[in-house]
Structures are given as C-alpha cells and as structure tokens.
Design brief:
Layout: E1 2-6, H1 14-29, E2 34-38, H2 44-56, H3 62-79, H4 82-109, H5 114-121, H6 123-139, E3 143-146, H7 165-178, E4 183-187, E5 190-192, E6 198-200, H8 206-216, E7 221-226, E8 247-249, H9 250-258, H10 269-274, E9 279-283, E10 292-295, E11 307-320, H11 328-340, E12 345-350, E13 356-361, H12 363-376, H13 378-382, E14 390-401, H14 411-421, E15 426-431, E16 437-443, H15 447-459, E17 464-471, H16 475-495, E18 497-505, E19 509-512, H17 522-529, E20 531-532, H18 535-545, E21 550-554, H19 559-562, H20 565-570, E22 574-577, H21 587-600, E23 604-605, H22 617-625, E24 630-636, H23 639-647, H24 654-663, H25 672-675, H26 678-690, E25 701-702, H27 708-712, H28 716-725, H29 727-739, E26 743-751, E27 754-762, E28 775-782, E29 790-795, H30 799-812
Parallel strand pairs: 1-2, 1-7, 2-4, 3-4, 7-9, 8-10, 17-18, 17-21, 21-22, 22-23, 25-27
Antiparallel strand pairs: 5-6, 9-10, 11-13, 11-14, 12-13, 14-16, 15-16, 18-19, 19-20, 24-26, 24-28, 26-27, 28-29
This protein binds adenosine-5'-diphosphate, aspartic acid and magnesium ion (MG).
Function: Bifunctional aspartate kinase and homoserine dehydrogenase that catalyzes the first and the third steps toward the synthesis of lysine, methionine and threonine from aspartate.
Pfam families: AA_kinase (PF00696), ACT_9 (PF22468), Homoserine_dh (PF00742), NAD_binding_3 (PF03447)
Subunit structure: Homotetramer.
C-alpha cells in the first residue's frame, strides 16, 4: 500500500493534474494498492481566506468566487470525458453554492468565527479532490472520492486542530477494510470535531493527512509529490545552490521544517515515525527523479550538517532582572503563561547567570506576549526585580540542523566564522539540548546573505564565490576585466574560486547583474543595458544588496571614491584598489581605514599603490609580521624618473632624455607632473605608514629635480625651452658624478621615521647603480637583512602588470 499525496502545484493546472493521473496509473500498474491525498489547487486556500475576509468586511467576494469556480471548471472541461462532465459540474456547483451561502452569512453578520473560517477554507480540498477522483475513475472504476472529515477526528481548535489518534486510526482502518479494492481519493487538510463540524489541520496540513492515513493502515510508503526535487539543503528560493538530499532522518526533517523548511508540514513526521513508515518526497514535474527518503536512520553524507532553514519574521522578547536568579519557579510561570495563552515560543535562550531570558515569538504575538508578561509579573516589576520586557523586531532565525552535529566539534565555529566574517551580527543563540540544531537570531535584512554564506561554508566550501563591484574601466580596468575573463576557468578549477562580477561602472554608465555579468560581453551589455552612472547610488546599492564576500575594486584615481571606503568597510565589504589617494591622504584617514578594516574583519588590499604589480607592500608586511625591524628603505618608485636618470649619461643632454621619455609615453603629457616627484612622494608616504610611522605629506623632505625656472614655465613647450636654458646646470650634475665614477639617481629614503627624496650620486657598490630602463627598485635594510639589503626590482608601471597586481589582491580576498 502506498499513499500518494499531491500538493497545491501538483493539482494546480490541467497539465499537472494530467501528470498526477499518470503517476497514479504507473503506481497501480506496479500492482500496488494506492490511496491518493490531494491539496486544494495552488492559490485556492489563500483565495478562500481572502473571500472570507472580504465577506467579514462587508465587501463583495463574488469576483474571487467566480474565479475559483472558473479554475475548477476549466480542469473539468479539459480532463473529464464530455459524457461524464455533467454530474461533476453539478457537484462543483453544489460546493460553490454551499460556499456562497457561508460567505453570505459571514457578510450578513459581519463576523467571521474560526469555526466558519475552517468550513470555508475546506472547500478548496473538497473541490480539487472530487475532480481528481472523477478523473481517476475514468481509468480505474474503483477510484472513489473520500471526504476526510468522516475519518479524521479532532478537537475544536479551529485552524490547527489536534487529532484524536485512536478514533481516527479506527475509522480509517474500517473504511479500508470495508472497501478492499477502493482507490480512495482523500481530501487533505480537512477534518472534523466530535460534532461533525469542519476543522483544519493547519496550513500545509495535507501532508499530515497523508501521514495519518498511511500510519493507520501501516502503508509501506508515504509519497509527498510537490514542485521540487526533494528535501534540499536549504530553501531553493533563498539559496540558489541548494541541492537535494537523498536521505534525511525523521528528527532532522522535524527540526528543519519546524524552523521554516516549508517543503513538508512538521507534524507529518510524527505518525510516520511511530510506525517507521518512510516518507518519500518526489517532484511531480520531474517524476523520474528519486527524491528524498525520510526515514529513521539516514546515512552520513560527509557534511557536518544536514540542512539549513529559517524563519524570516520573528520578534525577540528580552527579560532581565535579579528576580530570575536562582528562581526555578520563574521560568515555569513564564512558559505556562504563554502556553495557556496559545503563544508559540519559537526559541529560548537563557544566560547561565540566569539574569536574563530571551524568547523568540512570531511578530503577531509579540505585543500580546509582552503585555501578558508585564501583567503576570507586575509585582516583580514594581519591586525592581524585573525590568520592563523589551521587544526587538525585524529579526529572523536561521537554524543549522543535523544528527551528525552531536558530539562533533567545530559546527558552531564554522557557523559563527561564516557570519562574523561578513558582518552578520548574531542577536541570540540557542542550541537544542538534542544537539541536532543550532539556531541564531539575526537581522531580517541579513537573512538572505546569511543563508547563502552558511550554505557555502557547510556545503560548498570547495567553491567560494567573490561578489565583485567594479569601478573604473580605463586602461587598467579594461585590462583587468580581460585578465579575469581569461583566467576564470583556471581559478574555478585550481583555486575553487568563482568571481561573480555583480556590477561595473565608469563615469558614464553603470550595470548591475546580481547573477553575474558575463565578462565576454560586459562592454556590449553596458552599452545596451547600462544606466546612467551615479557614484552615490552605486555605493548604496552595493551595500543594500548585502551579498556575501563582497569586494569593491577601485581602479580610479579619484578622491570622491575614496571617501566611501570607510562606509564600505563598515558594511563588511572588502576593498581592493590601485588608487593611492586613499592611503596617501591624511594620516588620520589612513589610520581610520586600518581601524575599520580590523573592526569589521574585511580586506583592504592595495599592493599596486606602490610599484604596480611588484611585491613591495607584501614584502614589507611579511617582514613586519615575521618580527623583522625595518632600519632603512631606499627606493626609486617612479618609472619615468628612473628612465630619465638611467639614460642621462655620456654625451646625452637632459633635454633629449626628457623628450625621449615623453615620446615613448612614459611621462604624463606635462613631464613636470612626474618630475615634481609628487606621485613618488605618495608612494614613500604609504611605505612609511605601513612601516609604522605617522608621517604626513608635509613631513617629506623633497629636493626638487628641476630648477625653479623650469617649474615656472607656463606651457609644456616653454618648459622644454627652460630645460635647454638650464642645460649647464644638468651637465654639471652629470659630469661631477661621472668624474667620481658615479651615476645620478633620484632616491627616496625612509630612515628613523623620516622620509626624504633626493638626487644622489651613487657608486657601483650601491644596488641601484646598475638600474636600467624604467624599472622601479626598492631595498629594505632590516635587522635580518643588514649587510646586504633585500631588493625588489622590476617594471613598476603599465596596465598589464598593474592589473595583474590588483587581480592577485582580489584572489587574496577569497582566503
Ligand atoms: P506543496 O504545495 O506541494 O505542498 P509547498 O509549497 O508546501 O508544496 O512546499 C514546497 C516548497 O517548499 C518548495 O517549492 C520550496 O520552495 C519550499 N522549500 C522550503 N525549504 C525547502 C527545502 N529545504 N527543500 C525543498 N523545498 C523547500
Ligand atoms: N491547502 C492547504 C494550504 O494551502 C493545505 C495544503 O496545501 O497542504 O495550506
Ligand atoms: Mg505543502
């Protein structure tokens, strides 16, 4: 004997009911005895509740009533043979008339009792099941409509009635015994009390009906046919990477469904568990898939937990005060009060000091619960033994569940680590004494992010996704996008890293795609689907999306962008940048960045601020963390200046060398922008700060390369004129150096916390003597590298190497 239960979507349309009939047929062909349980057509229960509310409010409900009738008629006309349609349509009309009478009654008195509401909502299952029974009868004459109100007996708690198990079992058994051949088509959800009045088993209760029937007749299997492939690791609507679990235990299913996994109604597990009947969740829309088996013992599957679920709306009630310490009676009074008033407590935590108790309840109960508590403990409140209960709203509960968790350490560590790293604040924690469940209360607007993070941490730790927000698609920005595109597959395979480009902006346009912008097409998509760029909006949308592992890449040189860094850190967003304006601004700002980064546990990576892709910042940081002490840093950190002095030798004129540098595109359009040393100074400042010195721009001693007259020239041409006029000055510098066997180098030095940049003549014992081309070079003299400094040398500019440096920093954010 198998029980086949079909949910709302499975009876929701002509097509799905046709599939349903096929599933029943194949099961019967296996030679199985079958009973079918059906829900109302998808959306009809809500529609009935809405009509009831309309009637109560004195409004007209006929539009909806018409719609409901129409949906059922459509199914009858499409699926029932024409010659059999009449009696079916007749019965539908009878149901609709009864329903209309009930609604009219509600409208007339302007009052909707819980009892009447149950009678009204029950019509959804009556109509759908009747039609399914008639349809099945066409092929199987033994198919028979069964009104579960005659079998399932409950108390009168309308809306969520409790079942009289013994009586129900008996009635079901009798019916099956008396009709041994019948293929019963049973209405889900509805039941009746001892007076025969309609009651309902709670929203989603058709699953429970199936389990009650299955348990009474000791069926071999209870199949729950729905619209997903089975019980999944998380709600697939919230976590796109959730996957189907082949097996799960009754206990795990109970815990997960109690904490919001709506795939099956929690009480369903109880009758099935008592008789050890497996529940199998199957997909009506993918019937060949095996689905999930819920049974007593589910195999371990290599994951620390079985699944994650959540309740999106809860309120917390906090009780605090000395009145609770050591008083066993206190919690007893509190809980029996709330139970008496029918307020469901979703979760409880109590500090071990017993000084406070926190309860999570549904928001609709919060105000009432607070009032009741205040009334019950009036005396304690007056005498100051208890503080006025506080209610916190806009919260959610996230629960991780698994029998494996018992006696396994590291589960909470992993959970809190995943949440903490992404700035999800945990308001309360509860662990069931069963140790099958750890639940945390978090802010509601963190829920989607938290579910995905936690899912990633427990189930997909192999693959990590970085959600990237990208600003600046100039030379470097474009190059980096190309590099990422070319390297995507490699990163996925070798680093288990997926880069999800969520948004790209330049100064004109911006483009957002939460699922990721395909990098082959970003330019076209931006042209076709881009919106006008707006920095403020870009930043605020990035924060509002609240995605896990968010990284902002700043490829600009703009101070406006830097102004947003602090707020991004506070929103748990990491920043990777080649923009050095941030770190070389005021020291106060630099310190604020560092503090925020530490506080929020995010990454702030800026290797390319100094020497493009060369490992300079990294080397410095590695020296410092390994306990070395920096004694002296010497550096040439401007490719342009490097080139100019490397070439300024023999019989070459300074003028000619600068001309050549400009022609080669090494200099800014006005070479003085490089020769002023400002950019070099910024880099030295960053090195000094990263070495631990609170240096400001004004503290840097800089010796100008150019005589005053060159700086005064009003145009680039005029500037080159002055270079010719000052030729003797440059010749003298060069010749004096050459006479001593030396070369000229413009060198930045950090020593004793002081930064200077000077033109120096150095001999061949100096590591910078043999420098050539436009290379950058840096020499660290430290406690460990004393006699011979640690030297890093190589190209310190260019889109390709700079982009690569930013790229490497981005990948580091994944660790
Ligand atoms: P039915 O109408 O068939 O009873 P429900 O809507 O009650 O179906 O339950 C199925 C839905 O449960 C799925 O469509 C899915 O969105 C949701 N759901 C929530 N959590 C889970 C989970 N962990 N696994 C599978 N589905 C889930
Ligand atoms: N039709 C009812 C509901 O929507 C029962 C069910 O679908 O299980 O809640
Ligand atoms: Mg359901």
């Amino acid at each position: 004997m198998k029980i086949l239960k079909f949910g709302g979507t499975s009876v929701g349309s002509v097509e799905s009911i046709r599939t349903l009939a096929g599933i029943v047929r194949s099961t019967l062909q296996e030679g199985q005895r079958v009973a079918v349980v059906t829900s109302a057509m998808g959306g009809i229960t809500n529609c009935l509740l809405e009509m009831a509310a309309q009637a109560e409010a004195g409004s007209d409900f006929h539009v909806l009533l018409q719609k409901m009738e129409q949906r059922h008629l459509e199914v009858i006309k499409a699926l029932i043979a024409v010659k059999r349609q009449n009696p079916v349509i007749m019965q539908l009309k009878i149901f609709m008339n009864e329903l209309e009478d009930l609604l009219q009654g509600v409208k007339a008195v302007g009052e909707l009792s819980a009892r009447t509401q149950d009678s009204i909502v029950g019509y959804g299952e009556l109509c759908s099941t009747f039609i399914v029974a008639q349809l099945l009868q066409q092929d199987h004459p033994d198919a028979r409509f069964a009104d579960a109100r005659l079998w399932i007996k409950t108390d009168s708690a309308y809306g969520h009635a409790r079942v009289n198990q013994e009586l129900t079992d008996q009635l079901i058994r009798d019916a099956f015994r008396d009709n041994p051949a019948a293929v019963f088509c049973i209405t889900g959800f509805v039941a009746s009390n001892e007076k025969g009045q309609t009651t309902t088993l709670g929203r989603g209760g058709s699953d429970y009906t199936a389990a009650l029937v299955g348990a009474a007749i000791e069926a071999e299997e209870i199949q729950i046919w729905t619209d997903v492939d089975g019980f999944m690791t998380a709600d697939p609507r919230m976590v796109s990477k959730a996957f189907t679990l082949p097996e799960i235990s009754y206990t795990e299913a109970m815990e997960l469904t109690y904490f919001g996994a709506k795939v099956i109604y929690p009480p369903t597990m109880i009758p099935a568990f008592e008789k050890r009947i497996p529940i199998v969740i199957r997909n009506t829309f993918n019937p060949s898939f095996t689905g999930t088996v819920i049974r007593e013992h589910a195999h371990r599957n290599g994951h620390l937990i079985r699944g994650i679920s959540s309740i999106s709306d809860v309120s917390l009630i906090n009780l605090q005060g000395s009145g609770m310490v050591g008083r066993t009676g206190f919690s007893g009074r509190l809980f029996s009060l709330l139970a008496r008033e029918g307020i469901n407590i979703i979760l409880i935590t109590q500090a071990s000091s017993e000084h406070s108790i926190t309860l999570a309840v549904s928001p609709k109960d919060a105000a009432n619960a607070r009032r009741l508590i205040a009334a019950e403990f009036e005396l304690e409140l007056q005498t100051g033994k208890l503080e006025i209960p506080r209610v916190e709203d806009e919260l959610s509960v996230l629960a991780v569940v698994g029998e494996n968790m018992k006696h396994t350490s590291g589960v909470s560590g992993k959970l809190f680590n995943a949440l903490g790293r992404n700035g999800v604040n945990v308001t309360a924690i509860a662990q069931g004494s069963s140790e099958y469940n750890i639940s945390v209360v978090i802010r509601k607007n963190d829920l989607a992010k938290a579910l995905n993070l936690v899912h990633e941490a427990f189930f997909l730790s192999r693959i990590k996704t970085l959600n990237v927000f990208y600003l600046g698609v100039g030379n470097i920005g474009k190059t980096l996008l190309r590099q990422v595109k070319d390297h995507e597959a490699y990163l996925l395979e070798h680093n288990a890293l997926r880069i999800n480009m969520v948004a790209i902006t330049n100064t004109r346009q911006m483009l957002f795609r939460e699922a990721g912008i395909p990098l082959q097409q970003w330019e076209r998509l931006m042209q076709e689907g881009g919106e006008p760029a707006d920095l403020e909006q870009f930043i605020s949308r990035m924060k509002a999306m609240n995605l896990p592992n968010s990284v902002f890449i700043d490829n600009s040189a703009s101070a406006d962008v830097v102004n947003h860094y602090a707020s991004l850190f506070a929103a748990s967003i990491s920043v990777v940048t080649c923009n050095k304006i941030g770190n070389s601004g005021s020291y106060e700002q630099y310190k604020a960045f560092k503090a925020a980064v530490k506080k929020h546990g995010v990454n702030f990576l800026y290797e390319t601020n100094v020497g493009a892709g060369l490992p300079i910042i990294k080397t410095l940081q590695d020296l410092l963390v390994s306990g070395d002490k920096i004694m002296r840093i010497e550096a040439i950190l401007s490719g342009t200046i490097s080139f100019i002095f490397n070439e300024f030798k023999g019989d070459r004129r300074f003028y000619d060398v600068v001309k050549e540098a400009r022609a080669k595109g090494y200099t800014e359009p006005d070479p003085r922008d490089d020769l002023s040393g400002l950019d070099f100074m910024r880099k030295m400042l960053i090195l000094a700060r990263d070495s631990g010195y609170g240096v400001e721009m004004e503290d840097v001693e800089i010796e100008p390369i150019l005589p005053e007259s060159c700086m005064q020239a009003t145009s680039v041409d005029a500037f080159f004129e002055t270079l010719l006029q000052e030729d003797a000055y440059f010749e003298e510098l060069k010749q004096r150096a050459e006479r001593e066997g030396k070369v000229l180098r413009y060198i930045g030095v950090l020593e004793d916390g002081k930064v200077s940049i000077r033109l120096q003549a150095i001999d061949d014992r100096h590591p910078f003597y043999a420098l050539s081309g436009s290379d950058n070079i840096i020499a660290f003299t430290t406690n460990r590298y004393t006699a011979c400094p640690l030297v890093v040398k190589g190209p310190g500019a260019g889109a390709e190497v700079t982009a690569a440096g930013v790229f490497a920093d981005l990948v580091k954010c994944a660790n």
